[in-house]
Design brief:
Layout (H helix, E strand, L loop, with lengths): L2 H13 L2 H12 L12 H21 L3 H8 L17 H15 L4 H11 L9 H10 L3 H11 L4 H28 L21 E4 L2 E8 H15 L10 E6 L2 E6 H12 L9 E7 L8 E5 L4 E6 L2 H29 L4 H14 L11 H13 L9 H19 L4 H13 L8 H4 L1 E2 L2 E2 H21 L1 H12 L2
Antiparallel strand pairs: 1-2, 2-7, 3-4, 4-5, 5-6, 6-7, 8-9
Helix pairs in contact: 1-2, 1-3, 3-4, 5-6, 5-9, 7-9, 8-18, 9-18, 9-19, 10-11, 12-13, 12-15, 13-14, 14-15
């Protein structure tokens, strides 16, 4: 490479223009098998290339250009740079700013994607003092903390543990220092007087919203289970839905639908909270829940809590669509086996499956009233089968009736309770585990499981905030009262 080309390369790094940087580098190395470091003028520009390379990485982080960061990161070999993440300027200040900005903008869940990305590229790496290593050693005794970090972010390093328990709470403290300074500057505004109290944070995870979902702590999961079992004993001789022994109970001003089999099956696992990092499905809230339709789902947590997550109208629609998709897939699989048994040729079966897969749309574009039209099409498919002559008409009619009944179930209007009952049936049949249900209930890429595990992380953040900065928090509140 010529000196002019090196200067253009450095200029592209300075400006953060990744496409221009790639164009220059690819052009200059296109016909060469060696790295840039083997170029004649490399030593002359090496320090500048490395300096602006790390600065560009820092800028990409600060502006949330994570894809650009990843691309540039992977160019280190071509540039002859043995990458050292500790040389990326302001790493910790950047994630602090992004964390606090997310809180102030009301996008608190964004921090998880940021931490996940930082962890992937080992951007939390730091040099520990002896005292800090002793702190990490103590933190590692918390099995629930380690399970939660591993679940959220993958590999758990000393640096990640220290960041989660010591740096994030410090960021939170800095935010309130800035807030009190703002209040001090506006001391002439009496409406602020007496309103600065951080004790609400201790209860913040008891009721909040995230990703368009509302979350509420309904108390102790053990107490709820005990109450369910007592109600079951009182009502077991009365009429219930026998296959899963569903029971409606009133608890915390809500009407819950509970599968007793599910409760009894997972009773011991829920009681052994420390040894089970799981979120078990406990009930569906039919009335009085925190959602706009009064619906919701409850789960136990490893901390022994009963947590309700609301189901708003949009989520209900998404859940029902996924449930219909599940019904369709189950039906097609069963139909496939039955048709083979009846001697239908493979081509007809495949054509029929493709037709049904398309016409029974996941997004419910057809209604229940299209059923007869679909069944007529199925009849034509089966009737033209080469093997049809070996079957009598009654067999064909029976087969059409079975398929018709299955389609009727898929196309009929579905209520949320249908989906819950179906899942409890699957749990009862050992096809699905209770702790897997939270992962199946999702809206726009975020499941109830995501909400529950992220809530556990928030609880940890709040815990260490008050534990490490109790004196400072009291001082801040006193300072505010003196305005």
């Amino acid at each position: 490479m010529t000196s002019e080309q090196f200067q253009l390369l450095i200029k592209s790094l300075k400006s953060g223009n990744l496409s221009k940087f790639k164009g220059i580098l690819d052009l200059c190395t296109k016909n060469n098998t060696h790295n840039l470091s083997e170029s004649i003028n490399y030593e002359k520009f090496r320090d500048s290339i490395e300096k602006y390379y790390y600065l560009a990485l820092s800028k990409f982080l600060a502006s949330l250009r994570f894809e650009d960061f990843s691309e540039l990161f992977n160019y280190s070999d071509k540039l002859g740079i043995f990458i050292d993440v500790k040389k990326i300027p302001s790493r910790f200040q950047i994630i602090c700013d992004l964390h606090l900005d997310g809180i102030q903008r009301g996008v608190i869940g964004r921090i998880f994607d940021i931490i996940r990305f930082f962890n992937k590229y080992n951007l939390f790496e730091r040099d520990f003092t002896y005292a800090e290593l002793e702190i990490v050693k103590e933190l590692k005794k918390d099995k629930m903390l380690l399970a939660n970090l591993n679940d959220l972010f993958g590999k758990v390093s000393n640096s990640l543990i220290f960041y989660a328990c010591k740096i994030i709470p410090y960021d939170l403290y800095l935010m309130y220092v800035e807030r009190i300074n703002y209040f001090l500057k506006t001391a002439e505004r009496p409406e602020f007087r007496g309103t600065f109290n951080l004790s609400y944070l201790k209860r913040w995870t008891d009721r909040y919203s995230i990703y368009g979902l509302s979350v509420a702590n309904l108390g102790d999961s053990k107490r709820f289970i005990k109450y369910c079992k007592r109600q079951y004993e009182l009502n077991k001789n009365r009429e219930t839905i026998k296959n899963v022994q569903l029971l409606k109970i009133k608890y915390q001003k809500r009407i819950h639908l509970v599968s007793i089999n599910n409760i009894l099956e997972n009773n011991n696992k829920i009681l052994e909270n420390e040894n089970n990092y799981n979120f078990y499905s406990l009930s569906m809230v039919l009335l009085g829940g925190i959602g706009p339709q009064g619906h919701g789902f409850t789960y136990s947590t490893p901390r022994g809590e009963l947590i309700e997550i609301c189901s708003d109208i949009k989520e209900n629609e998404a859940i029902i669509i996924k449930y219909k998709k599940f019904l369709k897939e189950r039906f097609l699989l069963k139909m496939d086996k039955e048709l083979y048994k009846k001697g239908i040729d493979e081509n007809t079966i495949q054509e029929l499956k493709e037709y049904l897969s398309d016409v029974i749309n996941d997004k419910q574009k057809i209604s229940f009233f299209n059923k007869d039209e679909i069944v007529n099409h199925i009849y034509k498919f089966l009737n033209k089968s080469k093997e049809s002559s070996s079957r009598n008409d009654s067999e064909l009619i029976d087969l059409i009736r079975e398929i018709s009944d299955a389609i009727k179930i898929i196309l009929r209007p579905i209520e949320m309770i249908d989906q819950f009952i179906c899942r409890m049936n699957l749990v009862d049949e050992n096809i699905l585990k209770s702790e897997e249900i939270a992962k199946l209930t999702s809206l726009e890429g975020k499941s109830h499981y995501d909400v529950l595990r992220e809530r556990l992380f928030f609880q940890n953040e709040v815990y260490w905030f008050f534990k490490d900065y109790a004196n400072e928090i009291n001082a801040l509140q006193k300072k505010f009262l003196s305005i």
